[in-house]
Amino acid sequence: MAKFTFGGNSSGRSAVGKERVKTSKRRSPQSARWLERQLNDPYVKRAQAEGFRSRAAYKLIELDEKFHFLKGKKAVVDLGIAPGGWAQVVRRRLPSAKVSGIDLLPVDPIEGVTLFEMDFMDDRAPDLLVEALGQVPDLVISDMAANTVGHKQTDHLRTMGLVEAAAHFAVEVLKPGGDFVAKVFAGGTDPELLAILKANFATVKHAKPPASRKGSVEWYVVAQGKKG
Ligand SMILES: C[S@@+](CC[C@H](N)C(=O)[O-])C[C@H]1O[C@@H](n2cnc3c(N)ncnc32)[C@H](O)[C@@H]1O
């Protein structure tokens, strides 16, 4: 399986003027670490400066710089859309595309995006997402991740269950030639799912964009050219 790396130093990775956060009675060491990481994360700063709701926006931007899956797309489904960084990228790059998205969490409105606050695993979700577009999607993107319980194997299985459902949805609804991009865990896509993707798309690749934290186990699968 081709695993793609991104060349050069990402502009987001410099750490100048690092801010320290002290623990206190109110702040546990974990939350102090989280806050310190947020304050010193150049992608968080960039997202604030550029008006993106999440640093995750840069993962999609970097993946698209490599694979160009946004180009020319007309109808996009965004799975696990909250808080909306990826959808903002899609809207900025494709102002006339139809976009629908779903999340368990509420999402502040995004102009031009139809939002569903529900579980993607709900039987009604696939039809609602496609109906909202009023046309067959040509791109499905999924950044869904299950809430972690701290047990490595359980967390892996739960997120892979979501990826699998997203992949089946993509295979079922995508227009021929369409693309599917989804978050997977380290080790990539499991063999069964990989076989399904390979059978249904012209190319299937894995990549870890620079905006994805080095310590995190997340990778992305990019399946392009849905077969007719
Ligand atoms: C990493 S966040 C997505 C970030 C988003 N791409 C952005 O750019 O703002 C993952 C999201 O997946 C959502 N999610 C997890 N399981 C889901 C499910 N079964 N149905 C819908 N959304 C789900 C979570 O609620 C969470 O908001």
Automatic annotation (TrEMBL):
UniProt-listed Gene3D superfamilies: Vaccinia Virus protein VP39
Pfam families associated with the record: FtsJ
Ribosomal RNA methyltransferase FtsJ domain ranges (all copies): 52-226
GO molecular function annotation: rRNA (uridine-2'-O-)-methyltransferase activity
The UniProt record lists the keyword S-adenosyl-L-methionine: yes
Membrane-spanning residues: none
This enzyme's EC code(s): 2.1.1.166
Catalytic residue positions: 183 (proton acceptor)
Primary enzyme class: transferase
Sorted UniProt keywords: Cytoplasm, Methyltransferase, rRNA processing, S-adenosyl-L-methionine, Transferase
Homology family: Belongs to the class I-like SAM-binding methyltransferase superfamily. RNA methyltransferase RlmE family.
Protein name per UniProt: Ribosomal RNA large subunit methyltransferase E
Organism: Sphingorhabdus pulchriflava
